[in-house]
Amino acid sequence: MKKGLLLFLPAAIWLFLFLIVPLILIFIYSFLSRDMYGSITYQFTLSNYERFFEWAYLRIFLRTILYSFLVTITCLLLAYPFAWQMSCTPKRIRSILLVLLMIPFWTNSLVRTFAWMTLLRTEGIINSFLISTGIIESPFPMLFNEGAIMIGLFYVLFPFMVLPLYVSMDKLDANLLEAAADLGAGSFHRLIHITIPLTMPGIVSGSLIVFISSSGMFAITDLMGGAKIMFLGNLILNQFLSARNWPFGSAVSTILVFISLIFIIFYLYISRKEREDS
């Protein structure tokens, strides 16, 4: 028991210093004020949280939630059959597919984002090809809009949805599907009543990762949105760097962390319920 605690101690210290302490500081800053020069004054106030519920900032919050939800649903709909196909392939091919899926992690996400910008810009490869083939006469606006942000977020977060789904599907007992087929259940009924319920932990965990990650991203939304479309991540960045309003930026960060905790608690509840049912 003591050896186990000693092995856990370095990780606990690391988490405390670089996760818990910064979160506590952000939480404390969210109740402070700032003067006209941007310096923090140690005067307790709730105005930072009250300001968040102004329509200008509440609209940013709603936009972030909406697009995070759309990105999560898109990743889930496309990643589910992809992960299923991976789990059904032979082990040798499965290893190759996993390597291909992991290759993007070896490249910086900003480099990949700039590559997408090269493809989607007005003089980019896609528009040039469409014009040269006569499909369109003038360049199609594919960059610096909501669609470009969706593409960028989907591209970066897609592997984070596939991997949890693949782990759940790889553990799925194929005998259950064969038994259901022998009893006359069609493909759709096997999917709805067996495959999806048994892979629900992967669905929930993958959706949780994608949703939380997309709601806090700022680089992709800033680059592919042309800094014209504000999300919560961009708002936090601007408050800390440009506006020099650390208390308000801390309040927005605290709210975002609180929302993430709600989803994590929901995931833990689903996981415990799955264990109790099994």
Distance between the termini: 29 Å
CATH class of the domain at 47-92 and 157-277: Mainly Alpha
Question: Could you tell me the number of beta strands?
Answer: 2
User: What structural class do helix, strand and pairing data support?
Assistant: mainly alpha
| Number of H- or I-type helical stretches | 13
Low-confidence runs of at least 5 consecutive residues: none
| Silhouette | globular
Biggest sheet details: 2 strands, antiparallel
Order the strands across the largest sheet as they lie in space.
1-2
Rounded radius of gyration (Å): 23 Å
Strand content: under 5%
The level of helicity is: over 70%
Fill in the CATH topology of the domain at 47-92 and 157-277: MetI-like fold
Order of helices and strands: HEEHHHHHHHHHHHH
For the record, the CATH architecture of the domain at 47-92 and 157-277 stands as: Orthogonal Bundle
Mean pLDDT: 87
> What would CATH call the homologous superfamily of the domain at 47-92 and 157-277?
MetI-like
